[in-house]
Amino acid sequence: MALGRRVRSARQRRRITETEMAARVLVSRPTLRKLEAGDLTGSRAVLVGVLEVLGLEGDLDRIAADDELGHQLADARLPRPRRPDGPSLADEL
Questions:
Q1: Domains of the chain by residue range
Q2: Distance between CA atoms of residues 29 and 17, nearest Å
Q3: Pseudo-torsion of CA 56, 15, 7, 33, nearest 10°?
Q4: Model pLDDT for residues 27-55, shown as the tens digit of each residue
Q5: Superfamily for 3-59?
Q6: Helix (H/G/I), strand (E/B), else coil: 29
Q7: What share of the chain is helix, strand, coil (3-state, %, to 5)?
């Protein structure tokens, strides 16, 4: 489910009308509708305000909390250990 739809569902579960949410976030109803339709081109502050009204601002702290791909990319750039130039232990046996 897309972010806008999840935000709208959360608002509806709390029985907050569009008019009330827009007033509490200090935006117009069309701006709120755009956010709930998935249009994230507007201010991120609107999204943050909506999440605060819904009591979901803690969700912001979880964004990118588990960045597995980023860790893999960083690990891939680590220098690989060099093998010594001298004879190896296998050569000595």
A1: 3-59
A2: 10
A3: -130
A4: 999 999 999 999 988 888 999 999 999 99
A5: lambda repressor-like DNA-binding domains (1.10.260.40)
A6: helix
A7: 60, 0, 40
